[in-house]
Amino acid sequence: MHSVGICGSDVHYWQHGRIGNFVVKSPMVLGHEASGTVVKVGSSVTKLKKGDRVAIEPGVPREIDEFCKIGRYNLSPTLFFCATPPDDGNLCRYYKHDANFCYKLPDNVTFEEGALVEPLSVAIHACRRAEVILGSKVFICGAGMENFSISLIFLKQMF
Length: 159
Description:
Residues 1-107 form the Alcohol dehydrogenase-like N-terminal domain. The chain is of the alpha+beta class and 159 residues long.
């Protein structure tokens, strides 16, 4: 891994040892906002190669269920999510991840920017769900990356 963001959920697990029903019961690696360089691929991987720079999508379905079939695998109760107990995150030197959930970074995107892909996608999803459009009045509260990303989306629309 090259760059990994520290999310509010990481801090919460570190300070409180749990988020709802997800309880840290043994030492675990935090981090789910990440980018890095591919160092090895499995024999069935065709879309990535050694040396590719990628951003990591932290949620990966463990099985094909009804949510996967309708394209909403993020709602699957069997979802693997980096740094959600009991699963380790990617704030480490090397991390093995499903190639289908690794996205190539263009040459003009830094690793640091690549690590912001996940929080930015959350912000975009929130804006779409809330049907926010140019000219909408919104209240942004908090200093997390998702709120920062929403602010950037609005600033970009203004200029």
